Amino acid sequence: MWDRLHLVEAAPAGDLHLAAVLAPLYEDDDGEVRVILTKRPETMPTHAGHISFPGGRAHPEDSGPVDTALREAHEEVGIERDRVAILGFLPAIDTVEFKPWVIPVVGRVATPLHLVPSEREVARIHVPRLADLADEGRWWHVPWNGRRVWYYDLDGDTLWGATAHMVRSLLGLDD
After folding, report:
1. 16 with 101: CB under 8 angstroms?
2. What is the number of structural domains in the chain?
3. Low-confidence residues of the chain: pLDDT under 70
């Protein structure tokens, strides 16, 4: 599954470093590649209840999108930055609700995992297999403003919006 990822080698150039997320991938004991996703609590001021990658706004002290993504992943789910090998990037994406440009950073996390979810920022952690997410038959979409908004059932939660777009981009699924 690692060879099926659709990545770009460099972060987007220009002044887009407003936010970054880490798409943390790891190989489980059965050799399946999985991705770590979080459900944001309903109490969050933005994207409440959404499924997302760990991430957030850049801080002035962040040296770039990789630094932002790694800092946020540590804050949200306890992933230590020295346990992540950066594999590449996905194209920058704008979000409809909050409007920052988000740079997705893709990294392979060393196992065993020691996830520690932030009580304030994470209501639930999902670790679906990429092979399941790559199954087009499990996705559905609705038209919105001339685009398709993709949805995926994730054990009772719904993956949709910008994160669904990033997952589909990672897997090379056509929009």
Report:
1. yes
2. 1
3. 12-17, 44-49, 95-100, 175
